[in-house]
């Protein structure tokens, strides 16, 4: 089930709440980028926020407070905010969102009602969790024969939700899960004006290690209004066609600048921007793809979340069963070509027992010929749907052999 829109009044309320939450999501994006290193990556801050937000809506006590400090909302407010953000993102042109929860333990009806855009299902080893603890160990392998079927069912859900851009869940199931949450985000946008294919040619690109090599580089002239500076970084926005489409911004920082320093320039407010003094700009941008799978669990303690990750966590708003967050991972992909941009992300959370005046024309030039960032925002330019960093030189055809940071050695 996808996040649908409701009445105009409900949509207005959702927009207001999503706007209030946008600052927390941008803060999460900035803090997370500090932990992702200087190599190639692409992640979805909105996807992670929504995934953690769903489980946070069922967290109580100190567990809920800790998640609330990261997400900006907790308890029932988290459920309302998740619904509001889902509706706002779903209203962006070219974007599709979906969230599903599969459980092996009874889920409270209040939890289901609190997140109406979420699809609920049952894990096939649910009967095992109904057994007394003293016999559970003797029957723990009863579900192993059912793993391939549920694995394929959830992988198929991932393919459907991302239009086939991501083939599988970030993590394999092992039968110990009491709850599996999957949050998917997919987009396809066409540039307002495409890059002329005949102008694409090899240009030098200096990677993060200082090595220079030729890469396929797209070229076109764009209005100067699409370019601005923020604290030494150059931001280029390429609009997509259609009503309410995404805003795609490419960010080139000072030489040696890393993602944590450079990427926030993409969502800096108008007061922080310095315009480019030119009439137009000759843009040179590599054609590239990024695909990564990130083990988010190892990042959560640095983001302030620890109680939710160990036995004794209080998720009593989800179920009577004692559970804690056992694994969190995200697979994401972004592809930029002459025609437009495509991207997708799947976040997986599993829980286990015990989310100017006229003058002569001046033409500037911006060449993304060294490590740079890419940020996809909603139509209002507030919600970071995807953030990415390209440090290595793109391959000639980006031949589907994407650089990857794996949570587990499993193709996505």
Characterize the structure shown.
This protein is α+β, with helices and mostly antiparallel strands and 412 residues long. It folds into two domains: 226 residues, Antithrombin, Chain I, domain 2, CATH 3.30.497.10; 127 residues, Alpha-1-antitrypsin, domain 1. It is built from eight helices and 17 strands. It is elongated, with a radius of gyration of 22 Å. The protein starts with 7 loop residues before the first helix and ends in a 22-residue tail after the last strand. The N terminus and C terminus are likely disordered.
How big is the Rg? 22 Å
The first-to-last residue Cα distance is 22 Å
Trace the largest sheet across and list its strands: 1-17-16-9-8-7-10
CATH architecture of the largest domain: 2-Layer Sandwich
Give the helices and strands as they follow along the chain: HEHHHEHEHHEEEEEEHEEEEEEEE
The beta-strand count equals 17
Q: The CATH topology of the largest domain, please?
A: Antithrombin, Chain I, domain 2
**Beta-strand content estimate:** 25-35%
